[in-house]
Each structure stands twice: as structure tokens, then as C-alpha cells.
Amino acid sequence: MLTSIAYVLLLGLGLGALARLVRLPPLVGMLAAGILLGPCVLNLLSPDLLNISADLRQLALIIILARAGLSLELDDLRRAGRPAVLMCFVPASFEVLGMVVLAPRLLGVSLLDAAIMGAVVGAVSPAVIVPRMLKLMSEGYGTDKGIPQMILAGASVDDVFVIVLFTSFTSMAQGGSFSPAALAGVPVSIVLGAALGLVVGLLLARFFEGLHMRDSVKVVILLALAFLLVALEDVIPVPFSGLLAVLGMGLGLRRWRPVVADRLTAKFGKLWVWAEVMLFVLVGAEVDLSYAAAAGLAAVATVLGVLCFRALGVLLCVAGSRLTKKERLFAVLAYLPKATVQAAIGGVPLAMGLSCGQVVLTVAVIAILVTAPLGALAIDASYKKLLERTEE
Fold first, then answer.
1. Which end of the chain is more exposed for a tag (fewer CB within 10 A), N or C?
2. Residue 273, CA distances (Å) to 16, 60, 207, 247 in order
3. CB 167 within 8 A of CB 182
4. Which pLDDT does position 95 carry in this prediction?
5. Which pTM does this prediction carry?
6. Dihedral of the CA atoms 281, 25, 383, 321 (nearest 10)?
7. Are 8 and 45 in contact (CB under 8 A)?
8. C-alpha span between 25 and 331 (Å, rounded)
9. CA 37, CA 281: separation in Å to the nearest integer?
């Protein structure tokens, strides 16, 4: 496994740097490294590493969400207001609707299969969006109107909503019935996750205030608590979002102990250097090029078509807000990329033995290959032109 990890880090960093040289987002090179190292091409990764790939990807997500929470101000989220709330579920709902409209016609699947596919594809990728929004916040682009904060919060929450939809639709496909209780659990999951995270953040602030220790030790404590919060999701009998609790914990620490939060943000920024490589290379290793090639243009057209529905959803969220046309366009572009959720659940219907499993996995793979580089490149290339910079 150590040899495989060395391959992941070295080739991921190398191709990431190469992508940067040709003015592409580094994650494009990292995804390419994963495809090359994965079972479909060179097959150089140990099965032991692939078996824990999902856990390693979740670890990377925990790091980036903790860093996001430590960088966010509650006042900034309040400033974003109604659009920030709507961004948590409206664009994803529009994308699922778009898949239900387009997939039966383009891919020949049933309405229920299309709904499952929409739930898989509907989530944006926090791992692509969050680092970029943090960069915008540090550089002062769009912060006066809370634009990166709005997008960051929405991208962190809509995954919860989409995964609940996915669970309900697959239950129906297995012979169960649609559960309104599961949908009702979405706001409960969000509120409980955020509330518990804020409480833990407050307790940590008081703990760090009364007991002085090295920042490196504080990072270890924060990570350990983040792992426990995520694990709690599978233990307690009520709907609960562990990843939102991680975000809330960082928010709480920022609110009640900002000096510590500033220092820990820098520490987590260093952790993200290797976590980003592991995440995107392992996502790339999940990609099966034969599935993508077999799907052809119909699957690509479906993915691009549902992105248009998502864009309409984003525009609806920001309608009536004080954002300019350029800023609204940026919100649309920033909500394009997908990667981590699709890699995590794209193969689940196939593993469950559902008839739509193969096509769902194929569309999930194409969504990653098309939207992750496209969305990242669109954000990186446009933010200086579309957003106003707040001078400090």
C-alpha cells in the first residue's frame, strides 16, 4: 500500500503541476493521474488502498469542510440571506427534474431510474468549490455581498438533501415506497448537524481559552472531534448530518475564538495540500473509461442538458437579490462542478443489483469527467472579471 500511496502523491502532484503550466486547474491533472494509476489503465494501485478509498476521500472532505468552517463568519452568512438558503436545495431539485425530463428520451430509462440518476448527479462537489471560495474570500472577491460565503454554504448543504433523495428513490426501486418522512428529515438533519457543531465549537473555544497548547495539538483535537461527529451520523436514530456538524464546529470556533481559528486555518491549509491530491487521484481511480466510452454522446448531452436546468435553479435563487448580472453568472458557473458525491454513490445502484445500475454509473463518470474540470476552470478564469474586489 505504501508504494501505491507514493504513486498517488508523486504522479498526482506532477500531473497537477503540469495542468497548472497549461493553465488548467490542477485537479484535472490529479484526475488524470487517478485514471492512469487505476484498474482501467496501468492498474498500479493496491487493492488494499482502493478498499479504503472511500474513507480516505471522506477524510479529505472533513479537512476541507473544517477549514471552510474556520474561515466563515456567521455575519457573512446572514448577509447572504435568502439566496444562501435557497441554494441549498433549489438547484439540485431543478437538476433532478431535468434528469427526469431528459434521461427517458435520451437514454431510454424509466422515470424512476431517471430520478435515481438525477439524485446521483445532482450534488455539487465541495472538494472543488470550497477551496476556490476560500481563495476568493482571502483575496476579497465578492465578499462585500457574501457571494463566496453563499456558494460555500449551499455546496456544503445540498449534498445532504441529494443523498436523502437518492436513498428514497433507490428504496422505491427495490420495492419499497417513497418515504415522505425521509424528506421531512432533511431540515432536521441540517438543523441538528449545524446546532451540534456550533455547540462543539463553543466548547472548544472555551477549552482552548483555558488551556494553552500548541496549534498542532489543537488540529489533532479538532480532527478527532470531526471524525466522531461524522461517525455519530450512523449511530444516532434521528436524522443528522455529520459533515455539516464539522462545518458548524469550525464556524463556532471562529465565532467565539477567532484568534485560534485564524491560526488553525493556516494549519488546515497545509493539510489540504496532500489531502487534495489523495482525494482527486482516488476519484480518478474510480473512473471506468469503458463505461464512459460506451455511453457516447447521449450521456454527455444528458449531463449538459441537466446543467441547464441547474443554471435555471441558481438564477431563481438569486432573483430579486442585489447581485449584478455578472455576479449571478458567476454563481451559475460556481455551481457546475461535480466529483466526490458522484464517485461515492455512483456505483451503489449497480452494487444493489438495480437494472439502472450500469447507466447510472456511466452518467456519474461522465458528470465527473465533464463538470469537474469545466467548473473548476470556469471559476478560476472568471472570478476576477465577474466579481468586485473589496480592498482592505
1. C
2. 11, 10, 28, 19
3. yes
4. 95
5. 0.82
6. -30
7. yes
8. 18
9. 8
